[in-house]
Design the sequence.
């Protein structure tokens, strides 16, 4: 096994063509000519893995020369795709999605990888770099190559699930913090942050459950080249994806509860303010009526010539106001 992993860490998708030959428990990275030579030799390798940039100019021509069925070619280079697994002959078309962990990228902008899996070869295609693929290449360079196409797919699926777990955990922490703010009735709860949590969880969930179904379909299909250990690991990846999808469901529901609680708190605060305004209006309504009557500019106003009339009227207004407050309290307005 090679101990120098430099060649394994070269750019993948950007190069347009990356290939590995696996034989006798070893792996080596090869170019197009070396791959053709290995396949034409007397003893064929255990299996090969070719990773392509689906938009590269030579990708379509290489796929056609490799004898790939047009149905499979269309699936590998399609512009848009969702996670799915389709059995075609003795092979399987498997589309998966992974979290975008590239610097400066949005995690929910999930990157697709399309695979055509056969007994002796795997052909994968993508557009943007996927961390799970790089991790898989690094593990090969460290002397831990997959032993079969099924093992390679299982490792990739597990790494895709592992890559999503930190993002889901981060979403859980963010919604926990918002829930604490709502419980403490802190007014400045960020509705923008809450909306972002809901958006990310909804977008990620949109791919998680189809990915679970795709892995489950691959695991249960009657494919001779898929061993029991491979099926077990693919099942484990499917269960991890299911758990992540359920957590995203819970995050989305919790975000909705927090949103409703924020709305309830704001409605309650507004109701309290409206109650205060209503009490003030009800308190001053009769007082305003009395002062209005006493302020009309006509003859016959009592106490015009009496020096204590103003003080008596003020005392009367205070007494009426106190009686009103007592009545309001008795009927439970505050």
Sequence:
């Amino acid at each position: 096994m090679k101990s120098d992993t430099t060649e394994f860490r070269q750019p993948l998708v950007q190069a347009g063509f990356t290939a590995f030959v696996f034989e006798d428990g070893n792996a080596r990275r090869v170019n197009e000519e070396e791959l053709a030579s290995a396949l034409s030799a007397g003893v064929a390798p255990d299996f090969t893995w070719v990773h392509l940039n689906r938009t590269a100019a030579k990708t379509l021509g290489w796929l056609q020369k490799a004898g790939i069925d047009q149905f499979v070619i269309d699936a590998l280079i399609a512009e848009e795709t969702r996670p799915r697994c389709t059995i075609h002959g003795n092979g399987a078309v498997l589309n998966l999605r992974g979290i975008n962990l590239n610097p400066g990228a949005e995690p929910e902008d999930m990157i697709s990888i399309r695979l055509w899996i056969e007994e002796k070869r795997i052909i994968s295609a993508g557009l943007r770099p996927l961390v799970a693929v790089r991790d898989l290449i690094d593990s090969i360079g460290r002397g831990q190559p997959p032993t079969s196409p099924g093992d390679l797919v299982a490792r990739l699926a597990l790494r895709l699930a592992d890559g999503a777990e930190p993002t889901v955990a981060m979403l859980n922490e963010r919604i926990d913090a918002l829930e604490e703010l709502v419980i403490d009735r802190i007014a400045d709860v960020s509705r923008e942050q809450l909306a972002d949590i809901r958006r990310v969880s909804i977008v990620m969930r949109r791919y998680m459950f189809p990915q679970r179904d795709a892995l489950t379909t691959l695991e249960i299909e009657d494919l001779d080249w898929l061993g029991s250990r491979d099926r077990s690991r693919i099942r484990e990846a499917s269960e991890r994806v299911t758990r992540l999808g359920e957590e995203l469901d819970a995050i989305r529901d919790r975000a909705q509860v927090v949103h409703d609680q924020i709305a309830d708190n704001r409605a309650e605060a507004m109701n309290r303010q409206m109650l205060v305004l209503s009490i003030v209006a009800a308190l001053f309504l009769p007082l305003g009526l009395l002062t209005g009557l006493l302020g009309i500019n006509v003859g016959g106003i009592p106490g015009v010539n009496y020096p204590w009339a103003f003080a008596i009227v003020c005392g009367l207004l205070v007494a009426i106001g106190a009686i009103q407050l007592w009545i309001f309290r008795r009927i439970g307005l505050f």
Summary: The longest helix spans residues 228-294. Helices lie at 32-40, 59-65, 70-77, 131-141, 149-183, 191-220, 228-294, 309-330.
